[in-house]
Amino acid sequence: MPDDEYTAVLARAAHHAREWLNSVSERPIAAAVTADEVAAALGTHLGADGRDPAVVVDELAEAIEPGLTAMSSPRFYGFVIGGIHPAALAADWLVSAWDQNTGSRIPTPGTAAVEELAARWLLDLFGLPATSGVGFVTGGTTANLSCLLAARGEVLRRAGWDVERDGLAGGPRVRFLAGDAVHSSMVLAGRMAGLGVPRTVGADDEGRIDVGGLGAALADDAGPAIVALQAGDVHSGAFDDFASAVEVAHAAGAWVHVDGAFGLWASASPSLRHLVAGFEAADSWATDAHKTLNVPYDSGVAIVRDERAMSAALGAHAAYLPVPGAVAEPYDHTPELSRRARGVPVWAALRSLGRAGVADLVDGLVASARALADGLAAVPGLEVLNDVVFTQVCVAAEDDERTSALVRGLVDDGVVWASPSRWRGRGIVRFSVSNRGTDAAEAARTIDAVERVLGELPPAR
């Protein structure tokens, strides 16, 4: 392989990456063109002749750049998307260059070792059992799915049914229970696991599960059950009462899973850990590193207390695969046999930040969310609807029409992006503070932009 085969093309890629990163905080956040326009700029037909790789990279960057949304902007608050930590980004580039299929620790000991360290550090940060199984997956949905598959197998084994061998058909029905505010990724994971849509048991105004309703639902039947709790409601940011809910669920013999896509990171902060009190008694947990930890996409984490249950549900077996050793293989903890070394950027972020840096990161996001809520509450015509306990802020104008107009106005203005949603029967604007760059100054810029855009709308009728 010639020494210079990659030099020119990687130099062009690095140039375009730096141009993007250096402009992302000040550029208009919304994409300027549609997907069809990007495709037209690239050319929709594959020609007979190839092109120089460096030219291809330039062509790609120039055509796609107008179609990129500045999701790493410190004033992007949509979809709970984090920013990019420099160490994690650089590590992610190396992961692509190394091109290790991190399915097994035997042929890829380098990346497997780093992932095992990252898993150990995560368990320590979260205060979870050190013997838990950890899988690095694509995101919250896949992390929830991985945990539900382990849960499904274990509760059915307790009932005398081997679902890994015999499948679901003919076995006992597994009850799947959640609060009324269960996230769509949890619902999708349940569908893919063959559990169906969860039976909801009630929730309070902030989205926290009704523990009494959970107990009543579990008492309806003595069969196998899985209970989904959540750390961080997608609208309010609220956390379930884990201590009470886990106790009720375990008393009924149920497996308890915690969906903590962004909220599980509260456990890494001494000042916020009270929000997750009792969550360590659950049986499995799911989170994303590409949210609160600010690792580039994609980066989900599935954690299961009983590593054997995780391996039984997800482990692959074939004559050509390495003989299992004393330590579980990476492919025992994810639905994928072939995958990139997603845990390496997680390790890099943790190594760069340290325990104190992770706590400061989480605390800083919460401080910015509270500053944002205080400032928006003072804007005439706006109302903050949720109790801001973590990183979510939901606001509404006088009526749904004006709230929708505010969302559109913000997108057109380009300084701030916030997501529209519906909560408590009202149209809302949801601000998810997830970017390490969203500090007090950026919160102030956000408040100013919202007040300016709202003031430019026609008067409320």
Helix content: 40-55%
Low-confidence stretches: none
Q: Measured on Cα atoms, how large is the radius of gyration?
A: 23 Å
| SSE-based structural type | alpha/beta
Q: Got a strand count?
A: 11
Write down the CATH class of the largest domain. Alpha Beta
Q: Estimate nothing, just give the exact number of structural domains.
A: 2
How much of the sequence is in beta strands? 5-15%
- The residue-averaged pLDDT reads 96
What is the 3D shape?
A: globular
Pfam families: Pyridoxal_deC
Cofactor: pyridoxal 5'-phosphate
Keywords: Decarboxylase, Lyase, Pyridoxal phosphate
Family: Belongs to the group II decarboxylase family.
Provide an overview of this structure.
The protein has 461 residues and is α/β, with parallel strands linked by helices. It has two domains: 7-70; 90-349, 3-Layer(aba) Sandwich (Aspartate Aminotransferase, domain 2). It has 14 helices and eleven strands. The strands form two sheets. The chain has a seven-stranded mixed β-sheet with strand order 1-7-6-5-4-2-3, with helices on both faces. Strands 8-9-11-10 form a four-stranded antiparallel β-sheet. The mean pLDDT is 96.
